């Protein structure tokens, strides 16, 4: 028998995922966010209910077409965010999820970005539906990598943090780790920001 390469916590959340949306009751939720690309094998949808009095998440459900890592990552994320304010939940990163899981194999780390990006999309959806468009943070961002939902703003942020090569950009954002069709455009966007900010 081959050795299980995931942590016990990942295995638990994969075998016994929490908060999966099993009913067709999408209309009951206040915000819905979708990310990923079925062509790449991973797609994530996150559903949230929000207490309007204090803008805290009272319920977080999800559905996915993805691997064990994507399932475990979103399962644990759905537990983490309940009780958080929308601002707190929006700030959760893939690194936070990985820490809670006890890590993932290097070739599966990119799966952990699906849940937090779908969550942010759900929060933005809530803001849009409730007259709080000024709080939406991704409205002006342009998607460069459809599979990993990496935007031009994500690339600019990476450049400002010191990224200078495409391999470094992939390490930080997981861009181009799905179908790979965005490589040329992503490199051009990265080069543009390097030139803009550093004249290199």
TrEMBL record:
Gene Ontology MF term list: iron ion binding; iron-sulfur cluster binding
Gene Ontology biological-process annotations: iron-sulfur cluster assembly
Residue intervals of the NIF system FeS cluster assembly NifU N-terminal domain: 5-131
Keywords in alphabetical order: Iron, Iron-sulfur, Metal-binding
InterPro entries the UniProt entry points to: BFD-like_2Fe2S-bd_dom (IPR007419), BFD-like_2Fe2S-bd_dom_sf (IPR041854), NIF_FeS_clus_asmbl_NifU_N (IPR002871)
Domain named BFD-like [2Fe-2S]-binding: residues: 143-190
Designated name of the protein: NifU-like protein
């Amino acid at each position: 028998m081959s050795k299980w390469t995931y942590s016990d916590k990942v295995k638990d959340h994969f075998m016994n995922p929490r908060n999966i949306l099993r009913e067709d009751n999408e209309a009951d939720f206040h915000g819905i966010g979708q990310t990923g690309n079925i062509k790449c094998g991973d797609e994530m949808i996150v559903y949230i209910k929000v207490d309007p009095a204090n803008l805290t998440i009272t319920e977080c459900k999800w559905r996915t077409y993805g691997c064990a890592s994507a399932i475990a990552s979103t399962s644990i994320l759905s537990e983490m965010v309940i009780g958080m304010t929308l601002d707190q939940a929006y700030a959760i990163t893939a690194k936070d999820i990985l820490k809670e899981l006890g890590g993932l194999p290097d070739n599966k780390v990119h799966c952990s970005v699906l849940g937090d990006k779908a969550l942010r999309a759900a929060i933005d959806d809530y803001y849009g539906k409730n007259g709080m468009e000024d709080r939406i943070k991704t409205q002006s961002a342009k998607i460069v990598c459809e599979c990993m939902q990496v935007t031009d703003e994500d690339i600019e942020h990476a450049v400002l943090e010191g990224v200078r090569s495409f391999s470094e950009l992939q390490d930080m954002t997981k861009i181009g780790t799905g179908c790979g069709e965005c490589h040329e455009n992503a490199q051009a966007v990265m080069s543009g920001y390097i030139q803009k900010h550093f004249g290199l």
